[in-house]
């Protein structure tokens, strides 16, 4: 907590950075600080929101000064996360784009896939398309995070929303890629080896499960912090006296 300045209002006090060790990640802590400050700010008239203390600082200026380091930490955390995930998404794009033009089972003399009317081929085509579209959307979300201005208010909704969409589409692209992988084996493996398909399909769930297990806690925290009730949204201040 910072030292109070003579003439500080409740808004000036609310604008000071508070220790939040229970909140994981600098970006989520910055989001929570913004939620708290805006909750208190909405309880006062605009004239009070622009009121200066004895050293000529408004509550917003105090908030900006005391949260400068937290904004920098949140920016670094966001960029590191987006960079790592965008590399994975770009790799998936490369794989599924190549797979889209490598027809499993070969083609006939007219260039049509030999297994065009097989269910496994239809699953392959759909899953490859879904993996390509979702991974492309994921890269776009992470690119938006990397090129963001990182203004204070971006941490309130814009950046968390992009990260949520990016993680969900990345998970969906990984799952679709594994389905395409399994359907390819179903096409190329002959009947006596059909039991291998079950083993391969089971193994294909491992990377999907691992990704969900690792990233779900982060996704849950961001989603609850952004769209949930939150600990400050339930605060109701009936009367404020100055």
UniProtKB/TrEMBL annotation:
InterPro entries: PGG_dom. GO terms for cellular component: membrane. This is PGG domain-containing protein. The lineage of its organism: Eukaryota, Viridiplantae, Streptophyta, Embryophyta, Tracheophyta. It holds the Pfam family PGG. The keyword Signal does not apply. Keywords: Membrane, Transmembrane, Transmembrane helix. Residues 75-188 form the PGG domain. Signal peptide: none annotated. The chain crosses the membrane at residues 82-103, 123-143, 163-190, 196-214.
